[in-house]
């Protein structure tokens, strides 16, 4: 694809960018430089090297990411295709709870490089030990869990909606899809959804009438305060909600939330990611979830790797000891 293909297309079509063969080789080259088996992604010196290397990513990829950062389009998602993920080099899909990627293998390095082109990679100390690259894999016995270890339908949410420093972007890269190739990342954009809502409903959603609690997997979170679900410019609001854990404080607020859920359902998109595909979800503009799928736990299950990115690291400085990349 040419550079032109990654410009924002007509309304309603998610933005996408496909790496050329030469660009894929260039990204692989940068990732190989970072793929030191003795290194550790979470080492601040490795993060510094990755940030420097990100400035050498192919220009067309950098331009697509930069354009998306300026305006995430109607859908709030940028799909990047053709990153260096080679099935024959992958170990078996992990099956343990809380699995993370400390070793800078080529796919994880490519994910961090792309993430660093967007902003600063961050993680949460209370979630998966603060690892910067997390595995999203199905875990035996956790099938019904509303989180990334589950394999039932995952309800739509913004990432860490309960947290004052929720990330600006969630980035998911596919190493393997499920056996049946049916598992899909679901996204719905608030830009599309609010157009379907009456003025009164939007107004209610913009009032502090909702409490979003932290998931059980997030240890020691603060007691949440009532907040609005829609925030910012009423004509182009930000969204902060988790349909598994946002509780309305009254009946009117509950009705408004239900209308919002229905609006999101009607504008939903499904991304069946294949190896080397990466989706950048703007966490202020889009909610995301996942279709159900059937894991086999045979080492070939669906495997995504995930990072979070913040655009203004300074804003969360009080919560990042030593000015590092991990939020307390
Ligand atoms: O499995 C997916 O496609 C998305 C899971 C999810 O919500 C996440 O990892 O943040
Ligand atoms: Fe999520």
From TrEMBL:
<feature type="region of interest" description="Disordered">
    <location>
        <begin position="1"/>
        <end position="20"/>
    </location>
</feature>
<dbReference type="Pfam" id="PF02668">
    <property type="entry name" value="TauD"/>
</dbReference>
<dbReference type="InterPro" id="IPR050411">
    <property type="entry name" value="AlphaKG_dependent_hydroxylases"/>
</dbReference>
<feature type="compositionally biased region" description="Basic and acidic residues">
    <location>
        <begin position="1"/>
        <end position="10"/>
    </location>
</feature>
<keyword id="KW-0408">Iron</keyword>
<feature type="domain" description="TauD/TfdA-like">
    <location>
        <begin position="141"/>
        <end position="308"/>
    </location>
</feature>
<dbReference type="InterPro" id="IPR014503">
    <property type="entry name" value="Clavaminate_syn-like"/>
</dbReference>
<keyword id="KW-0479">Metal-binding</keyword>
<dbReference type="GO" id="GO:0016491">
    <property type="term" value="F:oxidoreductase activity"/>
</dbReference>
<protein>
    <submittedName>
        <fullName>L-asparagine oxygenase</fullName>
        <ecNumber>1.14.11.39</ecNumber>
    </submittedName>
</protein>
<dbReference type="InterPro" id="IPR042098">
    <property type="entry name" value="TauD-like_sf"/>
</dbReference>
<keyword id="KW-0560">Oxidoreductase</keyword>
<comment type="similarity">
    <text>Belongs to the clavaminate synthase family.</text>
</comment>
<keyword id="KW-0045">Antibiotic biosynthesis</keyword>
<dbReference type="InterPro" id="IPR003819">
    <property type="entry name" value="TauD/TfdA-like"/>
</dbReference>
């Amino acid at each position: 694809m040419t550079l032109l293909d990654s410009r924002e297309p007509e309304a309603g079509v998610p933005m996408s960018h496909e790496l050329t063969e030469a660009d894929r080789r260039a990204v692989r080259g940068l990732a190989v430089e970072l793929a030191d088996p003795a290194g550790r992604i979470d080492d601040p010196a490795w993060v510094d090297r990755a940030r420097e290397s990100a400035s050498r990513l192919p220009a067309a990829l950098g331009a697509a990411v930069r354009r998306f950062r300026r305006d995430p389009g109607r859908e709030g998602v940028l799909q990047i295709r053709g990153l260096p993920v080679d099935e024959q080099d992958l170990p078996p899909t992990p099956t343990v709870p809380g699995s993370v990627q400390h070793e800078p293998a080529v796919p994880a390095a490519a994910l961090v490089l792309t993430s660093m082109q967007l902003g600063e990679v961050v993680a949460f100390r209370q979630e998966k030990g603060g690892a910067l690259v997390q595995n999203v894999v199905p875990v035996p016995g956790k099938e019904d869990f509303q989180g990334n270890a589950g394999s039932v339908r995952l309800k739509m949410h913004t990432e860490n909606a309960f947290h004052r420093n929720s990330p600006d972007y969630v980035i998911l890269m596919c190493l393997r899809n499920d056996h049946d190739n049916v598992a899909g990342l679901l996204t719905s954009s608030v830009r599309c959804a609010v157009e379907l809502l009456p003025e009164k409903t939007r107004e209610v959603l913009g009032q502090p009438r909702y409490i979003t609690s932290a998931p059980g997997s997030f240890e020691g979170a603060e007691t949440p305060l009532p907040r609005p679900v829609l925030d910012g410019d009423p004509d182009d609001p930000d969204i902060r909600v988790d349909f598994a854990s946002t509780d309305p404080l009254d009946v009117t607020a509950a009705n408004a939330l239900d209308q919002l859920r229905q609006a999101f359902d009607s504008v939903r998109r499904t991304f069946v990611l294949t190896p080397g595909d990466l989706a950048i979800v703007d966490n202020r503009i889009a909610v995301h979830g996942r279709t159900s799928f059937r894991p086999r736990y045979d080492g070939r299950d669906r495997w995504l790797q995930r990072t979070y990115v913040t655009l203004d690291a300074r804003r969360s400085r009080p919560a990042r000891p030593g000015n590092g990349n991990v939020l307390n």
